[in-house]
Specification:
14 strands; 265 residues; alpha+beta; globular; 41% strand
Amino acid sequence: MLLTVSHSTRYTYDQPVDYGLQQVRLTPRNWDMQEVLSWDLAIEGGDIETSYLDHNGTTVHLVSAARGSEAVTITASGEVRTIDTAGVLGPVYGPAPLWYFCTQTELTTPGESITALAHGLSNASDKLSALHALSGSIIVAAPYQTGETWSTTTAEQALTGGSGVCQDHAQIFVSAARAAGIPARYVSGYLMMDDRVDQDASHAWAEAHVEGLGWVGFDVSNCISPDERYIRLGSGLDYRDAAPVSGVRLGDATESMIVSLQVQQ
């Protein structure tokens, strides 16, 4: 499938910014399930200072805001050819060892609810089936619901609260998998919706390492493994590690953000 993406994020400030630096993770790489045919990252009101691959294998651009700027626009666009690998990324490894992906973070530290959800997973003879079952259990326990959680909501809080969005579902999944001793990571990317072209935000899912297969993806929110409608951008231990854009700025300016995203065939 040939997917085209146009993703623009515009930050505006109520007064000039003294200094700002953002980590931008909006550039996909070639994997078995995707081939990047063309891609461009354009910046208005700032500059790309440098780019690199982080320890998770994610392409990161450091973008600075022009001194005195009152608006910065980051636009990612391009074409990616995708194929359905049933969610299997495979035995692809970078600098970070597998044990690193068993590390819990502030956002993924399990409490009683996640520990109970993960019960029996470590002893399951068929890990792949058990992980699919975990995904199904999460969406039942915390159905998709916007406006109930935030970027600071932990996996345990989302599960006990009984609702969440893709970010929460992915973090609950990786928390439970790690609690059972299975390496797991948070993944950010794009999803072509079947019923719309315009979207409010990018997407998130999880990957777990399964012996004999390597990394396998699980989209809890949609109850499937990623197929040809997905474009993988990057991964990390949690949302903060793989957020499409994150950074810091100096000054007292108040920030507003407008996102425009289109993913279509």
